[in-house]
Amino acid sequence: MLNYTLRRLMFTIPTLLLISFIIFIILDMAPNDPTGNLPLTIPPEVREKIRASLGLDSPMYIRYLLWCQQFFINEPLNLFNQWFGWCVGDCEGRLRVTSWATRSPVVDLIAERMPQTLWVVGMSYVVGILIAVPIGVISAYKQYSWFDQIGTLISMIGFSVPTFFTGVLLIVIFSVWMPNDSVFWLPSIYDTTLKVVDWSSFVQQMRQMAMPVMVLALFNAAQISRYMRASMLDNLSQDYVRTARAKGLKEKSVLLVHVLRNSMIPVVTVIALGIPQVFGGAIITEQIFKVNGLGQLLIIGIQGADIPLVQTLTFLFAVLIVLFNLVADILYGFLDPRIRYE
Amino acid sequence: MKLTHIIAGTLGAALLSTTAMAQERGRDGNVNVIYWQAASILNPYLSGGTKDIDASSMVIEPLARYDENGNMVAVLATEIPTPDNGGVSEDLTSITWKLKEGVTWADGSALTAEDVVFTANYCMDPDGGCQQLSKFGGVESVEALDDLTVKITFDGPKPFPYGPFVGSTTPVIQAAQFANCTGEAAPTCTEQNFGPIGTGPFTVTEFRANDTISLAANENYREAGKPAFATLTFKGGGDAASAARSVLETGEFDYAWNLQIAPEILADMEAKGIGTVLSGFGPLVERIMINLTDPSADLGETRSTVANPHPFMSDMAVRQALSMAIDRPLLVEVGYGKAGKVTCNVLPSPAIYDSPNNAGCEVQDIAGANALLDEAGWELGSDGVRAKDGVRLSILYQTSTNAVRQDFQALIKQWWTEIGIETELKNIDAAVFFGGDQSSPDTFQKLFADLEMYANTFDGTDPEAYMGNWACSEIPSPDNAWLGGNMPRFCDPAYDALIVEMGGTADINERARLAIEMNDMLMQSYTIIPLVHRGNVSARANTLEGVKLNVWDSQLWNVADWSRAN
Amino acid sequence: MLDENKPRKKPLVQVKNLKMHFPIYRGILKRQVGAIKAVDGISFDIFEGETLGLVGESGCGKSTVGRCVLRLYEVTDGSIDINGTDIATLSGVELRAKRPEMQMIFQDPQASLNPRMTVGSIISEPLDEHMIMTRDEKRERVGELMDAVGLARRFADRYPHEFSGGQRQRIGIARALALNPKFIVCDEPIAALDVSIQAQVVNLLEDLQQKFGLTYLFISHDLSMVRHLATRVAVMYLGRLVELGDAETLYMTPRHPYTQALLSAVPHPDPAQAGNIERIILKGDVPSPANPPPGCTFSTRCPRAQAKCKQDSPKWREIGEGHFAACHFIE
User: Fold this and answer.
1) How many C-beta atoms lie closer than 10 Å to residue B21's C-beta?
2) DSSP states of C33-58 as a string?
3) CA atoms of A322 and A276, how far apart (whole Å)
C-alpha cells in the first residue's frame, strides 16, 4: 500500500505540471483582457501601458516559467519563512504570485478566504452527510414506504431546485418576514470579519452560518442520500445479508454492521471525491449570502481577467482533485479487503 | 412679536444642540455600506473600477470634487482656480492650486504641495501602469511653488483644466508612504495599496480584498465633530437585488449602491418602510434621433446621406407633432420608475447646463399635434394616415432589442397612430445595432430608418465633447466609414460656430450659456426628441441622515456628513 | 446406504400447507394486482437424522421452500413446526432464540459471505450473538469448526475473496455449524462449484451429518447427487409437491409423470443400460407462477393429461408406504 501510494504520488508530479501548463495555455488563449473592465474613457495607449506593467508584453513561455518559479519555488520558501522563521535566499525582495486586480499575493488572498469557505461549505458538507446517511439507509430499508417517498421527493427538490432559489426563499422567510427581534431571525449577509472569541460571538457565527449551510446541505444531502440508498438496496439483496439473518443476528446489527458497512464503500469514495468541491467553494451560495469565499474569489478573478489569480486557484483545485482521487483509491483499499494495490 | 421670539428661541436651541452634538466625533457608532461589487484595492491609480474609487474616496481626497449638482467644490484646496481669480493663467496653459492650511494626514504629518507633486509623478511614471493616466493628459509639469501652492502646466491651452486632482479618481496620496512604490514597484506595495494613509474622514483598519473593508474615524480629520460614525463597514459581493433587500427589507445595512433592478420590485421593497430609494441623474438620456435625410433603399449609395433631404421629416411641423404626441411621464413610469424622469433636453445635467427654455413637453398634446399637422397641410386620408402631395406619413422606427425599448416602441406607435402617422417597428440586436460593423445595414450610425431610439451620455461633467457630436463634420456617411455621432445628420453653421466658441471659453458660466444655446437649437428644431432622463439608484436606511446621492463623483463623497437619526 | 436411519423416528420438521405468495405491484399508485405463487400449499415432514432431498426444475420454488422453512421469508400461510415449535408465527425475539437450532448453507459461497469480514469473524459472529464465551473460548471454537470442515486454522484472519470456491463453501458450512444446529437447509450448496470439488463438499456434508447427528433439507437440481445423498426425495413442480418417497423407491419406480420425465433425463451411471430407458421429452415451457394453470398445474405439459386434469386439482395422497403423489391417474 505504501509503495503504491508513493508511486501514485510520483506520477502526480508530471500530471500536475502538465495540468498547470494546460491551464496557462487556456487562460492565455481566452479572449480576456485585464483592461477590458476599465471605463471606455481610458484611451488605448494607456491600456497598452497597463498591460505592459502587468508583464503581458513578454512571450508566453517566459510568463509560464515565471509563474512556475514564483509558485513552486518562491511561495514555498515564503511559507517556510512565515512558519519557521527560516530565511532562504532573498526573503524581502522575492517575487510572489501577485493578483492583477488587488496587486497583492494570491496565496495571501486564498488564505484569507479559506476560513469562511471551510466553515460554511465544509460544514454544509458535514451536515449534508449527516442528514443523507440516515435518510438513505431508512429509504432503502423501507423501500417504497411513505418515508422513502418523502425522502425521494426531498432529494428531488434538493437536487433540482437551484440554490439561488432556496437561498432567496430562506432569506425572505428568515430575514424579511421574521421580525428582527425574533430569535428565529437570521442575518442574510455573512460577516467575514466576525471573530469567535466568546459565547455570544459563537452564537452569532452559528446564526449567520445557518442559512447558507442549510441551503448547501440540502443540495449535498440530496446527492449523497441517493447514492446511499442505491448502495444500500444493492447490498440488502445480497446473499450475505440473508446469511446474517440466518445467523440469528438482531435486525439492527444486520443493517448497521453488515449492510451499512458494505454500502458505505462506494459512498465514502463519492464523499472523498467531493471534498475538492468544498475548497472550490459554492459560487452561487457564496454570492447570495455574501460569504465571499474561494468561489467568489475565482468568479471575480475570471470576470476581471486576473490571470495569476485564476491560474493559481484553478491549479490548486487541480492539485486537490488529483490528491483526493488518490485518497479515494486508498480509502477504497482500506474499506474493501477485496481490493489490494501492489 | 411673541411668536417670532418663540421661533427664534427654538431655532437657537436647535442650533445649540446640534453644535453640542457636533463636537463629538464618532458619536453614532457603526454604519454599514454595501456595494454589490466588492472593492479590490484602495488605490484608484491602480484600478479604474467605480467600487474601488468610491471606497478609496472615504480615505484619500482630491483637491476638489463635484457635489451632487455637478458643481466643483474645493476639498484640500482653498478655492477652485479660475481665470477670474487668477488661478488659471490668461493663456489657459496652467492652473495653480492653493492648499488649505493645517490639513494633516491621518498619521499626523502635514499635507504639503510636495505630496501633490509626488502623486502626479506617481501616476505619470511610464512603468507604473497608472489607470488614471488620461486624467493627466496634456500635463507638461507639476511643480510645488511653495509648501501650499501647486502649479500644473499643460502643453497647450486647456479651457477645462480640471482633469488632475478633481474628483475621486485622482486623489492625493502621501509621498512618505508611497516613496518606494513608484514605477515598476507600484503593484508590489500591497500594504500601501490596501491601506493608504489619507486626509479623508476614515482610516482603514482592515482590508479584505474583494470582500470587506473595516474603517474607523480619522482622529486627525480637519473638521471637528466629523465623521459622526466611529466605524464604517464596507461590504462587497452579491447582486443588486440582495443589496437592495439588505437595506430596504432586512435593515442589516444602511446604504446600498447602484440598484439596477426592475422598478416595481424596488417599489415593493421600499414599501416596507425602513429605507428610502434615492435616485441621482447624470447626463444619460433616452432619446429619439430623427433622420433628416432620406433613408429610402432606392437611393443606393446616397441612402441616408445629406445628398437627399427627407421627404417629410424635413418639415419641422411633423417633427414637432411627433414630440407632442408622446406621454413622457407614462414612459418613465413604465420603464424606469424612480430611476428615470421626464426631460425636455438632450443635455439635462449637470444642473448648470440644464436649459429652462424647453418646458412643456411633459404634457402630452394629441389635439395640438393634430392641429399642427392640419395647419401644415398634412391631410388625413381614408386609411387614417396623413398625406400631402402624395407623400404619406409612414415611418420606420428602429431601436436595439431590449424589453423596455420594445415597450416604449409599442406605446409610441399607438400615440402616433392617433395623430395619423403610421409606424413600422423594428428592433435590432444590441451587438449589431451598436456594433459599428461596416457590412451591416442595421447599425445606429447608418440609420437606414426614419428615426431611431437609444440612450447616450458623456464622461465627467464637461459637455463640450458631447455637444460637439452634432457638428456638420460629425455626420456619418460612406466617406468617413459611417463614423461620427451626428445621427440626425443635423448641420447648422450657427451651431458649429458655438462649438468653436466653447473651445476657447474657460469661464464656467459662459460655457454653460453656450451649451444651453446648443441644446436649445437641437430641441427647438425637434431634431432630437428626448424621452427619459435615466439615473442611478441607490438606497439608504431611514435612520441614516446626510446622504446626498452624487452621480458626478464618488457616491460616498460626503460620508463625513453622514449621521444617525435619533 | 444410511440403513441405520431407516427405523423412522419422530419428525423433526413438520411443514403443513406452506404458502409463499409474493405480491405484484403495478401502476403509479403501486396497487397490488396479483401474486407470484412461488410456494402454493405444500406439506412434508423431515425425520430426525435423515436427509430430505428436494428436487425440481429451476424456478419451481424449491429454494423458496428452503428459505420459508427457516423463516427467512414471512410466509403467507401454513405452519412450520421445528422441534416442537411453530416458527411461522414466532415473534422476532423468540425467532432469534430459535435460530441456533436451524441453519442454512447457501448456493453462492462468494456472495453469501460478507466481503468485509475475516473468516474468523464470520464464523464467530453467531457465537457473539447467541453465546456467552470469552475471547479465547471463541477462538478455540472457531479453530475446532475450521478443523471440522478441513480448513487450516491460520486462515482465520483472511478474507473470503482469498479462498477458492470449495474453501469458501467450507467456510459457509463452518459458519452454519457454529451454534450446534440440529437442522440445516442446504440450498444448492454445490451448484456453484467445480465438479471435482462437488464430491468433496458432499462427502464433508455426509461426514458432518454422521458426526453431529444433523438433519438436512438438501435442495438441488442435481438428481444424481440427491440420489446419492438423500434418504427420501420430494419432487416439486410450479410451487407444489408432485411426489415424495424413499430415494430408492422413487428413483426405481417413479409414479408421477413429471417425476418420470425428470428422471428419464438423468444420465444413467451404467451406459450399457442407458439405451433401455426411453427419454420423455416435455413439451412447452413452465407456466408463470403468477398465473398457474387451473386444475393440475402440470396439465399443460403432461403427456397423459386429460380434460379432468384441467379442472380438478389432484389430491396429495399416500400411494405406497411412505410414498406420496398428486396425480389423478395413479392407483
Assistant:
1) 14
2) EEEEEEEEEEEEEEETT-EEEEE--T
3) 9
Using the structure block, give the residue that is written with the C-alpha cell 435615466: B534
Q: What is the pLDDT of residues C106-123, one digit of tens each?
A: 888 888 888 889 999 999
Number of Cβ within a 10 Å radius of residue B51: 20
Whether C and A touch, i.e. at least 3 CB pairs below 8 A, reads as: yes
Please, how many CA atoms are within 13 Å of residue C130, restricted to the half-sphere of its CB? 24
Q: Which amino acid is at A305?
A: A
Poorest-pLDDT segment among A166-170, B395-399, B519-523: A166-170
pTM equals 0.74
Angle between helices A163-171 and B240-248 (to 10 degrees): 10
CB atoms within 10 A of CB C318: 11
Nearest to C258 by CA among C331, C329, C187: C329
Q: Taking every pair of C-alpha atoms in chain C, what is the biggest distance, in angstroms?
A: 68
DSSP C318: E
Q: Output the pLDDT for position B327.
A: 95
Q: Which chains touch B (3 or more CB pairs under 8 A)?
A: A
Q: Per the structure block, which three cell numbers stand in for C93?
A: 425475539
DSSP single-letter state for residue A104 = S
User: Which A-chain residues 1-40 have CB contacts (< 8 A) with chain B?
Assistant: 37-40
Residue B110 gets which letter from DSSP? B
Query: Are the beta carbons of C114 and A240 separated by less than 8 Å?
Result: yes
CB contact under 8 A, B49 and A37: yes
Which residue, chain included where needed, has cell 495571501?
Answer: A108
Cell of B527: 431634431
Strand B212-217 versus strand B202-207 pairing type: antiparallel
In angstroms, the CA B535 to CA B341 distance is 8
Minimal CA–CA distance to A300: which of A42, A110, A23, A71? Answer: A110
Q: Name the helix (H) or strand (E) containing C217.
A: strand C215-219
Inter-chain contact A189–B236, Cβ cutoff 8 Å?
A: no
- Indicate which of A120, A292, A307 best probes the interface with B, i.e. most B CBs within 10 Å of its own CB: A292
Cα(B213)–Cα(B205) distance, rounded to whole angstroms?
A: 8
Residues of C in contact with A261 (CB under 8 A): 116
Asked if B188 lies within 8 A of A103 by C-beta distance, the reply is yes
User: What structural domains and CATH numbers belong to chain B?
Assistant: 281-458+525-535 (3.10.105.10)
Closest chain A residue to the Cα of C69, Cα to Cα: A246
Check A336 against C108: CB less than 8 A apart.
no
The C-alpha atoms of residue C115 and residue C203 are separated, in whole angstroms, by 27
Q: Each residue of B325-366: pLDDT tens digit?
A: 999 999 998 888 888 999 999 999 888 899 999 988 999 999
The answer to whether A103 contacts B193, with C-beta atoms less than 8 Å apart, is yes
State the nearest Cα–Cα gap between A245 and chain C, in angstroms.
7
Instruction: Determine whether the interchain pair C100/A248 forms a contact, defined as Cβ–Cβ distance below 8 Å.
Output: yes
Helix (H) or strand (E) holding B204: strand B202-207
For β-strands C232-237 and C51-55, DSSP reports them as: parallel
Q: Does A288 touch chain B (CB under 8 A)?
A: yes
**Burial grade of C330 (CB within 10 A; 0-12, 13-18, 19 or more):** middle
Residues of A whose CB is below 8 A from B238: 189, 287-290
Across the interface, do C126 and A238 touch by the CB < 8 Å criterion? no
Evaluate if residue B531 carries a pLDDT over 80: yes
Residues of A in contact with C106 (CB under 8 A): 239, 242-243
> What is the C-alpha separation between A46 and C187, in angstroms, rounded?
86
Which of residues 246 through 275 in chain A touch C, CB cutoff 8 A?
A: 246-251, 253, 258, 261-262, 265
DSSP strand pairing (C51-55 vs C215-219): parallel
**Dist CA B222 CA B200 (whole Å):** 9
Neighbours of C8 (CB within 10 A): 11
Compute CA distances A87 → A79, A92, A96, B9, B376, whole Å. 10, 10, 15, 72, 89
